[in-house]
Design goal:
Elements: H1 9-37, H2 41-52, E1 57-59, H3 60-67, H4 71-83, E2 87-92, E3 95-103, H5 105-125, H6 132-152
Antiparallel strand pairs: 1-3, 2-3
Helix pairs in contact: 1-5, 2-5, 3-4
Length: 153
């Protein structure tokens, strides 16, 4: 077994800071979204993806891949969103086993109302604490990590 490549002091500080920031920031933005809009983070992700998609529809399988969820988990979540009138589910015309998730008028209204509040929460709790240079460096760093992770899949 090879020896672990332990983190040095700078790496350890960065990693622990990132983990704490990630947890605290997600919790706060999710609280704001729930309190101000009555939506969960997954609700917002589904609705925003559908609102940006051609004809406001997305294959369940592709949406699950995008959200890094299993199809089963997403299907259950979509069922709850259907019960609230935010989305509908249609049979897929080119695959009898597949389903297409479609944004409803109520879902469109919900995302249009939530988007400005969501971006304000992100700005208030994240970007307002960073300089422009830090934002640019963060963008470079996150893309480097994402590209490295994608190369492994």
């Amino acid at each position: 077994m090879t020896q672990p490549r332990w983190l040095d002091e700078t790496e350890d500080r960065a990693w622990r800071g990132y983990r704490q920031m990630f947890l605290l920031l997600n919790a706060q933005v999710n609280r704001d979204l729930a309190q101000e809009c009555g939506l969960s983070e997954p609700d917002y992700d589904v609705l925003s993806t559908l609102s940006e998609a051609k004809n406001h529809r997305y294959r369940l399988k592709k949406l699950a891949e995008r959200m890094l969820w299993s199809q089963s988990r997403l299907s259950h979540h979509v069922t709850r969103m259907q019960q609230r009138g935010l989305v509908t589910r249609e049979d897929c015309v080119d695959d009898a086993r597949g389903a297409t998730i479609v944004l409803t008028k109520a879902g469109r209204k919900a995302i249009e109302a939530a988007a400005p509040r969501h971006v304000e929460s992100v700005r208030r709790h994240f970007f307002d604490h960073l300089t422009r240079e830090q934002v640019e460096m963060l963008g470079e760093a996150t893309h480097a990590v994402v590209n490295g992770l994608k190369a492994r899949t």
